[in-house]
Every structure is written in C-alpha cells, then in structure tokens.
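Supplementary material to the annual report.
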Amino acid sequence: MYYRLLRNDMIKGKVITLTTMLFVAAAAMLVALAAILVINLSGAIDTLMTQAETPHFTQMHAGELDLARLEAFAVQNEAVAGFQAVEFLNMDGAQFLFAGGSLADSVQDNGFSVQNEKFDFLLDLAGNLITVSDGELYVPIAYIQDGTAQVGEMVSIAGRTFTIAGALRDSQMQPLLSSSKRFLVSQNDYDALRQFGSVEYLIEFRLHDLDDLGAFETDYTSAGLEANGPTLTYALFRMFNGLSDGLMIAVLLLVSALVIAIAFLCIRFTLLAKIEDDYREIGVMKAIGLRIEDIKKIYLTKYIAIAAAGSLLGYGLSFLFRDVLLANIRLYMGESDNTSLAPILGFVSVVLVFLAIVAYVNGVLGRFRKISPAEAVRYGMSQGKAGGARHFRLSINQLLDTNVFLGIKDVLARKSLYITMLAVLVLAAFIIIVPQNLHNTISSNSFITYMGVANSDLRIDIQQTDQIANKAVEIAEAMEKDQSISRFAVLTTKTFRVKLADGSQERIKIELGDHLVFPLAYTDGRAPAAENEIALSVLNANEMHKKVGDVITVIINGKETTLAVCGVYSDVTNGGKTAKAVFSDDSAEVMWSVITAELVDPSMVDEKIAEYANRFSFAKVSDIDEFIRQTYGGTIRAIGKASYGAIGIALALTMLITLLFMRMLIAKDRYTIAVMKAFGFTNTDIKAQYVARSVFVLVVGILLGTLLANTIGEILAGVVIASFGASSFKFVINPAFAYLLSPLLMAGVVLAATILGTLDAGQIQISENIKE
Amino acid sequence: MKTLIACENVTKSFGLGSEKRNVLDGISVDIHQGEFVAVMGPSGSGKSTLLYALSGMDCVDSGKVVFDGADFSALKESELADLRRTKMGFVFQQPTLLRNLNILDNILLPSMRDGRKNGVQLTEKAKTFMEKTGIAGLEMRDITQASGGQLQRVGICRALMGDPKIIFGDEPTGALNSTSASEIMRLLADIHQSGVTILLVTHDVRVAAQTERVLFILDGKIAGEYLPDADDEARDDFKAREAGLTAWLTGMKF
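Predicted assembly:
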C-alpha cells in the first residue's frame, strides 16, 4: 500500500520531487567532496612534511652568524634532535630571466639553495629528494604552474645559463603566504652565484618531541641567539600549506550548508502544503484508530526514497568532480597516504546528510500530533490557522488596491507557507551581498591597513645592509625636497628586551617612528602618540596576555621603562609579532627601516619607483598596489569570480524556487482562484494578487537579507578575512550595488518567475474546481 | 416579459474519443427578467453544466448564450468577469468562502474590487443585508465559527452586494437541514419579490415547488417544463404545488 501511495504521490508532483532530489544530491555531493578534500589535504600535507622532514623551528637571520655558539646551544638543549644552519642566497628578481619575463616585479624574496643534507629537503613531483647536477635549476612549482618558467627551458641568471630540470616542492617556503621562494642549484653553481646576492641564514631545528616546541622557542629567545628575521614553526608551515585549499574546503562546506538549507526548505514547503491538503484525511485516519507512527510512515517513506536517491546520486557525482578539485593538492603536495579512507569518509558524510533529512522530515511530521480528528473531519483545516492577521481587514482598507490587499493578507494569514520563500530570498540576498562586500573590502586600498601594512603609494625597505639609520636619513632628506611627495614616514625597527611578569626576559621587535602619518586599522585602541605608549600586534598581545590599558616593561638604553599599551592591531608582516612605539632610542641596533610615502599624483608611481630604485640601489622600492596584487591578487580575483558566481547562483536559485513555489501555490489555490473568478475577479486580478504576494515577501526578504549580510555576514566574512591575518575589519560596502542593483536584480528575477509561474492561473476552469 | 438570458442550441461535451459524452445536447431556453426558475433532473443530467453555461463561467462547444444583450462568445475573459461581478450573484451548495477573510470581508470581497474608496458605504450595505438575513453580529467572526446555514446566508449577502439582475444557485440548500433550507428558500423568495431573477439547480421537490417554472433536464436535453402557477388550485397552496410537481416529475420518470 505504501508503495502505491508513494508512486502516485511522486508522479503527481514530479517536478517538485525531482527538484528536491536534485538539491539533496547537490548537498550530498558537496559534503562528500569536502570530506574527501579534508582527508586528502591533511594526508598530503603530512606526507609532504614527512618526506621533506620539515624543520620544527626555523629562525631566519640576516647578518653575522656565530655557528659555534648555535651548535653549542643545539648540543646542550635536550629537546633538539637535529640542527643545521643553511644559506639562502637572496637575489634581486631582475637577475632571473625566463622566456616569460624576469622576476623583477616579484614581491617575493627569490633566492638559491643547495639540497640540504640533514633535513628540510627539497623534493621533486614524485616526492623524492632532488639530486641536482651542475647547470641544472629546479624551480618552485608555483612558477611552473603560473607559466613563468617551463621545464626544459634555458634560463640566464646573473650571466650564467641553467636548464630548468624540473619543479620542486618546498614544504617550508612553497605557500604564497611565505614571502621567500627557494630555487635549487648544485653546490658549484651556488658558489659561483654567491657574489651576486646577499646571504641569509635559515637556522633550523628538529625536535625529539613536537610538544616541546613552546619551551624550545623560549629557550632559543632567552639564549639571545641570532634572530634578525622572522621566526617560523612547524604549525605555521602546516597552516600555510593548507591555507588555500583549506579556504576552498571552507567555501565548499559553506555552499553545502546552504544547499542543505535549501533542500530542507523545499521539503518543508512541500510537506506543509501536503499536510494542509490532506488535513481531513489525516484526521479521518486518526479518527479510525491509525497510530501516528503509521500515518507518519506514509509520508516519511516518500522522503526516505527522495533522500536516498539524492544521496546516492550526489555520492556518485562526487567521484566525477573530485579529481578536478584534488589536482591542486596533488600538484603542490603529492598523493596522500590515506586516500583509501577518503571515499569511506565521503560516504559517511553522505549518510549523515541522509539521516539529517530523515530526522528533519520526522520532526516536521510531528505536527500530526496536534491535529484534532474532530476538527479536521468537521472543518478540513486547523482552526487556529484560519483567518490569521485578523486586524488586517478588507472592510477598513482604503489605502491598498484590493488585489494588493488580498495578496498581502494571504501572506500574513499563511505565514508558515511563505516562510520558505522568504528564507530563500533572505539567503539569496545574503549570498549576493556578502561575497560582493567581501570582495569590495579586500580589494579596497584601506584593507591592507587591517593587516599591518600602511596605505601609501610607495614603500622603500632598507634591510640586510650596514648603516641602515644613515641610509634612511639620506632617503628622508631626498623625499623632503621632492615636490611630488605629499607626505612620508620613516619607521625603524629595532629589537628590545621585554621583562615578563615572571621576571624572565624576551626579545621584541619594535617599529619606531611617527605612526600617525599612515595609520593602520586598530583592532582595539589607537596608534601610539606619546613617548610612554606602545601598540602591540595581536600575536604579541595574546602571547604576553596584554590588552589596551595594561603596561609592559621594556629595557631602553639599559633602563627599565614602563610603556602603556595603547592599541592592538593585526599584522601579517614579519611573522606577525611586532610592536609600534614613538620613543627615541640610540642604543639598539637597527634591524631594518621602512619608508612609506604618498605621491601628490599617484599615477607617477612607476616613475618614482624607478627614480628611487636607481638613486638608492641599497633599498628595495616597491609599489603598494603591486605588493597587494602579487600577494593577494590571485585570491582577490578568485573571490571576485566567486562573488559573481554567487550572484548567478543566487539569482538562479531565486528564479527556480519562486517558480516552483508559485506553481505549487497555484495548484494548491485552485479552489480559491475559482471562487474569485466566479465572483468576477479577472485573470489579471488573480495575477496581481500573486505578484503582490511575491513583492511583499521580496521586500521583507531583501530587508532581512541585507540586514543579516551586514551583521552575520560580516562575522562570517571575518573568518575568511582572518585567514589573511586581519583579526578585525569593517565591510567596505558599495551602496549602489548593495542597496540598489542587488535588490533590483532580485526583484526582476522574482517578478519574472512569478509571472511565469502564474501563467496557469488563467487556465483554471471555474466549473471544474468549484462544482459540488 | 423581457428576456434576460437567451440560450440557443447549446452543446457541451466532456472527455475525448470514445469517452466523449454530450452533457448539454442542443439546449435552447430563455430566462426572463424577474422569473424564479428551478432546473431539475437526475444526477449527471447536465443541470449544473447548464447553470455554468448560462452564467458564463463555462464556455460552450457550440450554440449561443446571450445575457442581457451581450453574447458570451464575443466577450473577453475580463468582460465576462465584469459581467459576473456587476450583474450576477452566485450561491453554491458549499459556502465557497475564503478562509483567510472574516465573514464581513467575505461579503465585501467582489464589491471591494472596484469600490474600495466607498468602503464605508459598502460596509453599511453589507451590514444591512446581514441584518435582513439574520446574521447580524457575525461580522468579525472567522468562517469556521459559523454554522452551515449561517454561512449560506453569508453567501447570499455576498451575492446581493453587486445589486445583481440574477442570482444563480447551485443546490443552495443541498447541504442544509430542512429548517435551514426553508429559511434560505424564504430569503430567496423575498429577493425574488424585490425584482431579482433567480435560477437555481436543485433535486429537492420542496425547493422547486416554490419557484414559478421548473425545467426538467434529461441526457443533456430539456425534457419538459412545469409551470405550477398554471394550476389555479395549487397557486397558493404549497402542499398542492408540491403534489402537482411530484406527479409531473413521476410522469417524467424522475
């Protein structure tokens, strides 16, 4: 009997059955893909980092190196399993000449290494240690993938010719967020190139137990060893490696959550409509003594069938798409060890989707308990539901057109039915606005100020050279005289010791200078203005357990000086552990200087870069826009594309759901329409009523969606933005888009779908639907 | 008497191919202004279909229906709707009320389409009809809070709101107990007295006996016509009228 009921019901409502099934399939597919990707990504990262024997602790250092002292420290420290101090030959990007152009514009620190002997190995695409011969060059995989270089190509570097022998995987410096890129050459070639670049050191340690890393970091800092450069740890490498694919997984999960929500809404709508239609029958079944479980089974069977078919279809589809999505992971990190686990976990997640749907349907069917058999048999409907929005009466309406009134009245009276459409519209508005706002925010000039980078036109870095302070003064003097520069700031970074609460001391990098010229966006508080103030980066503030208003003791000129924490800011530069202050100091050695400048005419930026680069060859002059383009350009473009994709998907979804909803509503309202027509309402009147319903729900949906997008959406986008390193931000909204174009687009789609969906309303024959 | 509806050789069929069945098979009949007419016949004979054809709610396959000088076949859907709203009223077996509206709003519904600016006057008019039909005080009630008889009166009030020339009734007493049915018929008789033409479909001899003319329909054709008023003896005696009609129907093999 169940089978027959099921079959009849599905054939009768085949469009809605098919749509619901497709949504379930899409949700199942996305969830399965996300699960498969998670397993593969974590497995591939583990494999890569195991094969490469990634260091647990790396201290980058520019300047003199006391190897004996470092070796002694490594021997004495019980946690250390392996130690090496290897060279990284940093070379100007212009020296790398590929067929596709030079790396002159690259904001990455490109340089050479030889293959390490103990650990931190550079691997080929098969995951093997690369043995490099003289005249061969192995290039970071990213440059091969983006077409900058090609395997087999002859390249010229500092006058020497190399053949690109292959791509290399670098577990430490491969991710885009890592600011250096290692090219692999033989020892002989390295020695020949050495005179053309500047040497930096990678002081690397592997520990017996990774759990000791925290203590080891403290030991290293306390020992006052070489630390002129960022400090990086195993956890950071792992996070960097997983970031871009991790973001993709996060987006997949977000989209699948959305699709599941829509599948739930479809189910809810069809189920509620069906229950309302069958109200009398359900009452009769209860009256003649059928148990609620028996009645539920009739309805549940249908949805179990839909959910099972959809889940299986989705799982099948995930196999079609997973290779495309896994390509990037495979290329950068290689195969995962636990690939066999992925389909199993994928299946488990699909089963979870299936169970969630069944549980949801079961929950909705709980309404059967509330149906009174007497009421259902007598009236064929719930007494409580009739005549909602009592105070909204036709008899006192003089303002609204009667058709508009009837449309709005219907929405208010049958809220539970319209909530489905409302939810879809809210979601659609949300999906349209949030990615657009996110894209706007990260592509706006002010966004970098959330990440510790000042918003200026020009940035000049002076590091890894002597007399940094004098050189900075030299540039500042030149800028002072330069009429084309409207304002500039010289910021000098020095290392100081900070006294912690337990009496121990730690080193901290403090950037000194006027921080008000190009202010950053502060998570909390403000930039330092007085001599006794200091602002801390989020990482430093968290580590030191300090917040705005607290004080810290810094040793300046040999004296303990108390500074008040006046602000906390996000920072992605220099390992994220920085501080800013304005006090003057002559004691500590300058680590580096950054000069930021704003031009009177920003279009002159290229010209000015060339001029300053030429005049001050010791400095690295860069364009902030170029810096953003190269560091985040790919991501900004990807989010831009995703946001346009989201608009397309949201509008298609709005169209589909509104169309389905209207068709179902017309089918459901046949009797009411027939009554209206019998009493002289025209087809145009009926359509106007449905358009009024749609527009009413649309207006509420857009208002709610926009509100949610700017509240919850901002928080959600914050999760994505945090992955860029910015811990707090405000949406940069394009009002013309968010408040005009997006509502107009949605309104157009909803109206078109309503008109299309209500075409049938005119075909309803009065006699067929009203006859006794 | 002036002809209000002229129906000429009307046919209407349902189904296709071998399943095709002529429900109205070349019917010609005139309904005059001010008449009180009942249509009777066995189930499936085409009574309701005739009513829907005469009111323009259903289109016919062939033949012609002219209402108050307007040929239905020449009218657009919207013009037919206007005609139904302004010159006709309908009362069905079930109340056909909208569940989202209270009783007063249900009565006002068709007239408010054009006259919302006159809402106050229309509301007063509706209340007057409610008073006359004995349902005053139910204005704000939900339709689920009234009895079947009360709802049928609501339907009559709604039908009267447009000051119609004719009221069509499709078994208006069919779902009511005998007391309620008598009251509804008394109301319809009063409305007829005020000059409104009434055409109703019924299978109840007692209802039909209260009209001026009974059309008997069989297999899609008008098989006969009974005029109780022609029988002088029965004119003012309800029992006699009912007996006369019953005898006639028996003769028609009803």
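Chain A has four domains: 1-53+242-382, 64-227, 396-447+631-772, 466-617.
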